[in-house]
Design brief:
alpha+beta, Bacterial polysaccharide co-polymerase-like, 243 residues, 9 helices, 58% helix, single chain
Length: 243
Amino acid sequence: SLKPQYEAWMIVAPPRQGAESLNFLAEDAPSVLNPGSVQATSLDGEYVRFKQSLRGPAVAEVFIKLDGVLKSLNDKTSFRGGTGRLSNAVDVADHFYKNIKIDPIGDTGSVRLTYTHPDPEFAAKSLRSLVKIGDQLIRMDVRADVDSRIDWLKREMKTRLNPDHRKSLTRLLMAEERRRMLLSIETPYALSVIEEASASPRAVSPRGAILFPVLCLFGFILGLLAFTLRQELLGRRDVSNAF
């Protein structure tokens, strides 16, 4: 039979510290000295990446390694008795794609993440974990890029003699070191959490107003079939008695 479905939700927004907090350090850098650092300082792209990857297999791969998660997902399917349906990251990512909605909130840039699941507590915990994992994966990739740029800038400073070039390189290096500092802070990097995950106390489906008429119709059809079958059996019995 169908299990009641609950909704857990969470509201996130673009990160508070955007490109403007870093670009002032690199705004006068000649393009020949800039290996993509200015473009990389924008956190808007990382927020977009976060939204795109949240329900993807990379996040799911880490998520299913959490203790008891895969078993919980399989034990708490939409139908009672349904187990073993999800076995790998691709399956779980497909489940998330079908059951997690990402809805924009007006023109604010904020989005509402909504996870529909039979267990409201599990759904809320899952949303928190997915957001954290998605942010950490982006943070790791960005940290590797930043470290690579810092190494490149330090090497360039040793070879450049032009004072203006050295000044520009210094400003770029300061920008990347500031970015590395932001990456080390234990707060979300690619997003801001506006509202922590919480769950609805009441089931959102199946709705009684819809379920009751459906059950009535189903009962009517079963009754009609039973009546028809009974009439047919009685008719056959009458014919048999006639002979």
